[in-house]
Amino acid sequence: MSISAQNPDISGERQSGQDVRTQNVMACQAVSNIVKTSLGPVGLDKLEHYGMKPPTLQATVVSQNHER
């Protein structure tokens, strides 16, 4: 699924309807894919490879809740 960039409504007007729901779902899926690649089974290995600290307990809890 590709995410198309659209100009955001910055005039302060509220939007509703199927288009907005679809955009919200696509945004959530994009965040989910980012988290999966960052904190997935080999995510910790990636962090250690680059000399970074391992994820915090909070990041681990978020990852575990996402898998449910």
Summed up, what is this model?
The chain has a domain at 40-68.
Features:
single chain, about 70 residues, mainly alpha, 3 helices, about 0% strand
Q: Mind summarizing the main beta sheet? A: none
Based on Cα principal axes, name the global outline: elongated
Order of helices and strands: HHH
Contiguous uncertain segments of 5+ residues: none
Strand content: under 5%
Q: Cα distance, first to last residue? A: 22 Å
Average pLDDT:
68
Number of strands: 0
Rg, rounded, reads 16 Å
User: Helix content range of the residues, please?
Assistant: 55-70%
Region (Disordered): 1-21
InterPro entries: GROEL-like_equatorial_sf (IPR027413)
Describe what you observe in this structure.
α1 crosses α3. It is built from 3 helices and no strands. The relative contact order is 0.10. With 68 residues, the protein is mostly helical. The chain has a domain at 40-68.
Note the topology.
Elements: H1 18-39, H2 43-49, H3 57-67
